[in-house]
Structures are given as C-alpha cells and as structure tokens.
Specification:
The complex is a heterodimer of chains A (about 700) and B (about 140).
Chain A (H helix, E strand, L loop, with lengths): L2 E3 L29 H4 E2 L6 E10 L1 H8 L3 H11 L3 E4 L8 H6 L5 E5 L6 H9 L4 E8 L76 E7 L16 H4 L18 E3 L8 H8 L20 H10 L22 E9 L2 E2 L2 H13 L4 E4 L1 E3 L6 H6 L1 E5 L2 E5 L3 H11 L9 E2 L2 E5 L18 E6 L17 E4 L13 E4 L17 E4 L2 H21 L4 E2 H10 L1 E2 L8 E6 L4 E6 L11 E2 L1 H9 L4 E4 L2 E6 L11 E4 L1 H7 L6 E3 L2 E6 L3 E11 L12 E12 L10
Chain B lengths: L1 H13 L12 H5 L1 E7 L4 E7 L4 E8 L5 E10 L2 E6 L9 E6 L2 E6 L6 E6 L4 H5 L13
Antiparallel strand pairs in B: 1-2, 1-8, 2-3, 3-4, 4-5, 5-6, 6-7, 7-8
Classes of the chains: A alpha/beta (about 700), B alpha+beta (about 140).
Chain lengths: ~700, ~140
C-alpha cells in the first residue's frame, strides 16, 4: 500500500449526520476462511521486513494478555517466528475503547529478515487463532517536492498592515494570502477572484482560536523553532521540563515534547513496547526526536495554514492562530514521514492512538493512498480486484482503520465542546474522479482543492468520497507564485529532499495537501467558537454544520481552464464541466460555519403568500437536498404542500400564522455507479420557520 | 430681534437625537436614536437605530443564532413610518408611530395591525461586533 503526501511540488517562492458503518469483513470477520484469504493484500509496495501484523481471535488474545506462555509458544512454533508482542501501545485507561475496535487483538510477529514475507505470512495464516495477516507496509515517502523561498516585495518588509486595510492582522505577508482574504487583487494572484477564499476575515471578529483545541498534524515534523509557529505548538510540559530519555509523563512515549516521531522508531519491538510502558530508556527511542530538517517542510507548511501565530507582526497569518494574544489553537506533531523514510502501518496506527490519548481533537492528514481504491471494503480488507482489465492486488488497512475509529470514538473526546474527534484528509492530487483513501471513508472529511480563481485546481481529485472544497492554489509559472498557498517553511530543508533551494522560512506550495489544513483550521475555529458560546456538539452534528457551511461552486464550472501540469511540465485544458457537483458540498466558509454553530435564525414568511426565500447564508442552496417537514409543523404553519428548494431559494406557502421546523437532508461522497462502492456521508440542516401576517423576502423584521 | 432669532434656531439644533424630548419636539426628532424591543409577536430580539440622515440599522435575532444586521433608509410623513432596505426591498409594512416617555410603539398599517414595542436603549457593542453581515454578496449589509 502506498500512501503519499498531497502537495504537488514546486516552486519558487444544528443538525445531525450519520454515516454508513463500515466494518472489517472478508478475511477478518469471516473467521475460518482458508488461509490465503486471511492475508490482507499483497502489492509490490515497500514492507517492513522481518515483521508481520496479525490479528488474533478473541480467545487467544485474551490468553496471551493473561500471560499464557503456551499460547504464545504455539503461535511462534507454527509461524516460525522469534517473537510475538502487541502491535500498539494501549494505555490501560483506554483499554475498553481499544477493545471496541479490536486493537487489543493486533500483534506483531518478528522473524529473521531473510525470511520471505509471503512465506512467513502463509505460515501465520495457517494458524486457526490468526484471523488476519497484514503486511506492515510503509507510507510512500515524498521524493519529488520542490520548494523555493518566498521573497516579499520591498514594500511589504515587515511593515504593519494599515488600520484601514481589508485584512485582519498586522502579519506582513497576510496580503499575499489570498486563501485567507481574497480581495481580487491580481498583483497578489494573477487569477484572483474576490471572495475565493476560506471566508475567515469576518470569523476573526468572533474568534481566532483557542489553546484548548489541539490539532494533530500527521505529516513530516512541524518546525518547532519557526518564528511563526513556536508559540502555537502543543507542549507536553512534563517532557519539556523532564529528563532526557525518560518518559516523564508516563504516556508511553519518551521525550515527546511537541509530539512524537513515529518514523524514528525504526521498528516497534517488544522491548520498545514494554520499555516505554515502564518508562525505561529503550533502544528504539534513540534518535526518534521530531526531525523537521529532513524533507520538504510539508508538515511545517500545513501547520502554518492552521495555526501560524496571528497578530505578531511576523510572517504569515493563519486560520486559527489566535488574535495576537497567544490564544490560537495548538499544533501537535505526529511525524509519519522523515526525509526518504516513512511510517509503517503499525507506526501510523500508533500515531492515531497517540493523538487520541494525548489530547488532539482534530487529526489533520494530508496524505492518502496512491492506488486505485474505489470502495470502502477494498480499503479496509484489500484483496484482488480487476482494474482497467488487469488483476491488481490491493493491501487492506484494517489496522489503520481500527486506529482511526479509535481516534474518532466519543469515549476519546478531547474537547469539552465536541463529542468525539474529527479527522480531515486530502482528496489527492491524481486528477482521479474519486477521493483517495482513507479520506474517502464515510466517517472522515476528504478535501478537494480550488485556486484563487474559485475553479478546481488542475491536480485535484474529485467525485465520490470527496466531501468539501478549500483553497489549494496552483502553480502558474516561475514568475507567478502568488496563485499558490503561502505558509511557513523549513530553513535548511534541502537535506534529504531534492529540488529544494534557498532558505525557506516562508514558502509557496500547492495541492490538496494545502486545502486539507484549511478545513482542519476552520474546524478548529468552530470548536473554539463553540467553547466560547458554551455549546457542545456531537461529531455528526459538527460535520453536518461544516458540510453545509459552504458556498456553491457549480455556477462557474462551465467551459475550460488552462492548467500547468507539474507531472508532465506542460499546459493542459481542463474541462470544468466534469467537476460540477463533484467537489464536495461546496467551498468551506469559516464565517458561515461559526454562524451555524451559533444557531440558525428563524426564517420569517408571510402567511397566505407563496414566499421565495434566499437561504444561501445557511447552506449551499444548490445542493441536492430533500426537504422534510413533520406533521406538527405542517399543521402549525398550515402547509398544503411540502416546501421545495428551487433555483437556490426555499419556496414555501404557509396558510396560517405559526412556527415550526423544516429539515434539509443531503448526502455527499456516494459512488452512485456501484452498489458497494465509496460510501456516503449524510448530513442534515434544520431551519426554523415563523409565518407572520406580513414579511419580506430578505427576512428583515420591519 | 435678529439676535433672538439666531439664539432660537441654535436651541433647536442642539436638541438632537437621543436626548429627552418634550412635546414641542417633532415626532421625527424623537424617533431618532436607538431602540430595543420589549414586545415582539415572535420569539426574538431587535435593536433599531434611526439616524438623522434618514438611514437606519437594525440588528435582529429571531429565534436562535447571531444578530443579523440590516441597513436601509426610512421616512416619516404624517406619523406614518416607511422604509426600504439597502437591497431595494421595501419594508413589509408601513407603521404608525407612537412615542411616550422612552417607549416606542410601531403598529403595522395593514389588516394585521400588529403592534411591537421598543424602549430607548443604546445598541450594545457586543451586538454590533458579533452580528452577521452579508459580506460577500452585498458589502455593507442589506
């Protein structure tokens, strides 16, 4: 299984939602199948040698957990392995939730690295107690990014933003961040269209974030020394003030001051698992401190979009970086990429467990599979599929999926204003007509990308699995970088990654990797605001409001657009019509989202008159909603027929003076062409209606 | 004589909006200022600000959610208050205006004859700061 970052390289400078519950099936659930169907996938990808992940049946897992040496010996004998140990660090206090997703049944077996993996897998699968075998594959490392530093124009040299400027903070590079505030200034972005941004300028009037909101950045490490990020980091105080090589806070991870380097644990061994749980200095931990000096600075760029410090007169602004009073959200670094190395499945799963156990309420994940995975079952359980006429074996990711669900579980809620946690993924940059996984899963958000022109980025995936759109920017040429996304970068990042030039404190990048943290940032802002006004939402409610707090995109999706394709280094024409209705529910809007969290105002209608009401401030009125009304509302308002949404407006005719509620129901992400394809995320939005003797169509009281 | 006339006009000008009025001050001058709803026909909260330049701003919260800001112009003739929002839409009704002490009553001039009452009150800063303005589609509000 290959997974990659989604930054294409370059350059120079009140409702409830529900989702289809996906469960492990096939080889995992159908215990007793023949041994080969127990093996989840088998691609030509990179695997950790000398190691396999096995899921045991409940009885055997219980025996081993109880110290039954005979059970362990039995497995080792048949699989001809040297060692058997838990695949993940499960803290005793979280054991119950871990059991819910079967995480306690996942073990690693280790054996001589010269043993062919397929041979070892077949032996392990022959054991009746083993219900699933997963190759411990590595995420695909980034190898092609090119990043060039941002060189500000002379007049922008750290000069404060004037009071009458249309921007929000005195960060000198904010005027270059069309993704935050797009005034249509074509000297900033050649193709800028006013309003093609994330809608955060007005949201900052209400909140700039809150330090209680912790966003875990699953990426290469965030530069904790960066001038614009150092005050925005999640800090593990016990480790920061503790002893070197000691697990000072007893969380099972040593010296995790700002997060943890899961790649640096080159192998999660038995000694490592037991050692860290006992707070010992163990071999695997050495050299595993967060390392942002290798790679492209992708994680630092992503982090800066969410939480670079606002109002500090330095560098860039961010969506949830506070209001200049140290009140922004906090960024936890879950390092799953390091230069040319990447985390294995077990390490990646461990990162989700870590984020959940250490306070993160948002998982920001700008990575995904590079394979043609087109169903939830294919992602979770893998198998052999016919793709484009060829037989292709796809790795399943049952362990990652289980760890992801552990992170999302309400029992692991990490913020007082949100029941459960949320995960946001990039849709992918392959121009595929469907989202990559894990983002395509129906219980996480997958983000498509648009440019400063409010049109799809030429690289973005679209279609089934995609949930919402955000600014991702796009490359134009080496003299016009402004159409990309400007954010924080990594100095001296040239080590280990080709194509990097200069000193990259602030860099431009493009991709759904950049769009993804916009949605994470807006979500972080939303949680911050919910706390401020004393509200608590379930994850489904939160996601419903997020997916309906959008601006419509389809109206401009006609004709073609020229796009410079960095994979072929050539200009190409995009047929915009193919993106219609396929970028998710629309372009996320931070202001609308905060308004939705605040509560939906009552819509005023006039009794005895057919009214056509603009509802664009509550949702994307061109979304394919169904409108439902309960019988009590029908009676109270005297509705002879159900309201409908037509041409972007709610049409309703009340015969009586009264009040009630209507419910807009929508769904996004479903692959309509297949019965068991990519699943959908459904969402609802309630609107209150009051009919009066007289009313205007704009909702004004007078 | 001329001196006296000048002094008299100056007094009229000084008697501006927001101050206690006496019966000699016109209804229009009395209406100028800021008002807060005390009785509406639905669950909600409304602040009105009538300005001397014949513009108004209205912060309304009907049901839940944030206050929403509407702007426009008003006119008062023969005790009948009419207005138009900045998006061009007329108010849903014209209103008879009655002001007693610090209380304003607006009664719709239609079959419903709906009365709503307000009291003189400065619009709180938090209402102004947290209000919803339709920014992208109509800068400056409706």
């Amino acid at each position: 299984m290959k997974r990659i970052f989604y930054a294409l390289a370059v350059l120079t400078l009140a409702g409830t939602a529900c989702t289809k519950e996906i469960t492990e099936n096939g080889p995992v659930a159908q215990e007793g199948k023949d041994l080969m169907t127990k093996i989840v996938g088998d691609t030509q990808g990179e695997f950790q040698q000398g190691s396999l992940l096995v899921k045991l049946d409940e009885a055997t897992a219980a025996r081993i957990a109880g110290g039954d040496a005979e059970a362990v010996a039995g497995i080792l004998a048949v699989s001809e392995a040297d060692d058997l140990f838990p695949a993940l660090l499960i803290q005793p206090k979280n054991a119950e939730v871990a059991r819910k997703y079967g995480l306690h049944r996942w073990y690693q077996i280790s054996f001589d690295e010269s043993t062919p993996l397929r041979e070892a897998a077949a032996k392990a699968a022959s054991l009746p107690s083993v219900v699933s075998v997963q190759y411990n594959s590595f995420l695909e490392p980034v190898t092609s990014d090119k990043v060039v530093e941002f060189v500000p124009a002379p007049q922008t040299k750290m000069s404060p933003v004037p009071e009458d400027s249309p921007y929000g903070f005195d960060d000198p590079y904010l005027p270059y961040q069309w993704n935050l505030v797009n005034t249509g200034d074509k000297t900033v972005a050649k193709n800028a269209v006013a309003g093609a941004d994330v809608g955060v300028r007005d949201a900052w009037r209400l909140t700039g974030g809150d330090p209680s909101v912790i966003v875990a950045v699953f990426d290469c490490a965030v530069n904790s020394m960066h001038e614009d990020l150092k005050n925005s980091l999640w800090v593990n105080e016990a480790e920061l003030n503790g002893d070197v090589n000691v697990d000072d806070d007893g969380n099972g991870f040593i010296d995790d001051k700002y997060g943890f380097n899961f790649v640096g644990c080159t192998k999660i061994t038995k000694d490592y698992v037991n050692g860290v749980l006992e707070g010992k200095d163990v071999e695997a931990v050495k050299g595993s401190l967060l390392n942002w000096t290798k790679g492209s600075g992708h994680g630092t760029h992503v982090a800066g979009i969410i939480g670079a410090e606002n109002g500090n007169g330095t560098g860039v602004s961010s969506i949830a970086g506070g209001t200049g009073k140290g009140d922004g959200v906090r960024l936890m670094s879950c390092q799953i990429f390091e230069g040319s190395r990447s985390a294995s499945d077990a390490q990646n799963a461990a990162a989700f467990i870590y984020a959940a156990d250490n306070g993160a309420c948002i998982a920001q994940c700008s990575y995904g599979n590079s394979y043609a995975i087109t169903s939830d079952d294919m992602y979770i359980n893998g198998g052999e599929f016919k793709i484009d006429g060829k037989d292709v074996k796809i790795d399943g990711s049952p362990l990652e999926n289980a760890a992801l669900k552990y992170f999302l579980d309400p029992a692991n809620s990490n913020h007082q204003s949100l029941e459960g946690n949320i995960a946001v993924f990039a849709a992918g940059n392959h121009r595929q007509p469907y989202s990559s996984y894990p983002g395509a899963l129906p219980y996480v958000i997958s983000v498509t990308a648009f440019g400063a022109d409010y049109l799809p980025g030429g690289y973005t995936n679209y279609g089934p699995g995609c949930k919402v759109a955000a600014p991702g920017g796009e490359y134009f040429d080496d003299k016009n970088y402004g159409m990309m996304i400007l954010s924080t970068g990594v100095s001296n990042a040239a080590q280990g990654s080709p194509g990097i030039e200069g000193n990259q404190n602030y860099v431009y990048m493009q991709g759904t990797s950049m769009a993804c943290p916009h949605v994470s940032g807006v979500a972080a802002l939303g949680i911050s605001y919910a706390k401020k006004i004393g509200k608590k939402l379930t994850r489904d409610e939160f996601q419903s409001l997020l997916l309906t707090s959008v601006n419509e995109m389809d109206a401009s999706l006609t004709g073609t657009k020229d796009y410079y394709d960095l994979s072929s280094y050539s200009w190409t024409k995009l047929d915009l019509g193919k993106y219609k209705g396929k970028m998710g529910t629309g372009a996320v809007d931070a202001w609308k989202f905060l308004m939705a969290i605040e509560g939906t105002p009552t819509i005023l209608t006039q009794a005895g008159k057919k009214m056509s009401i603009d509802i664009s401030r509550y949702c994307n009125p061109y979304d394919n909603y169904t409108v439902s009304v309960d019988s009590a509302t029908k009676t109270a308002l005297g509705l002879a027929s159900d309201p409908v949404i037509r041409n972007g407006k709610l049409e309703i005719e009340c015969s009586k003076i009264g009040s009630g509620k209507i419910v807009l129901k929508g769904a996004v992400g479903k692959d309509a062409s297949k019965e068991d394809g990519i699943g959908e995320m459904s969402y609802v939005r309630e609107l209150s209606i009051a009919s009066r003797p007289f009313a205007t169509s704009n909702g004004g009281w007078l | 004589m001329k001196k006296l006339l000048y002094i008299f006009s100056a007094l009229l000008i000084l008697a501006g909006c927001g101050k206690d009025k006496d019966s000699k001050i016109s209804l229009e001058e009395q209406l100028c200022g800021e008002w807060h709803s005390t009785s509406l026909s639905v669950s909600g909260d409304v602040y009105l600000g009538f300005r001397e330049d014949k513009t108004f701003e209205m912060y309304q919260k009907i049901g839940s959610g944030a206050y929403r800001l509407y702007r426009g112009t008003w006119n008062l003739e023969n005790g009948l208050l009419t207005g138009k929002y900045n998006d061009g839409e007329e108010w849903a009704a014209a209103y008879d205006v009655e002001i007693k002490d610090k209380n304003l009553t607006l009664t719709s001039k239609n079959d419903a004859a709906e009365s709503t009452r307000y009291t003189r009150c400065e619009i709180p800063a938090e209402v102004k700061e947290g209000c919803e303005v339709v920014v992208k589609s109509c800068e400056g509000g409706l």
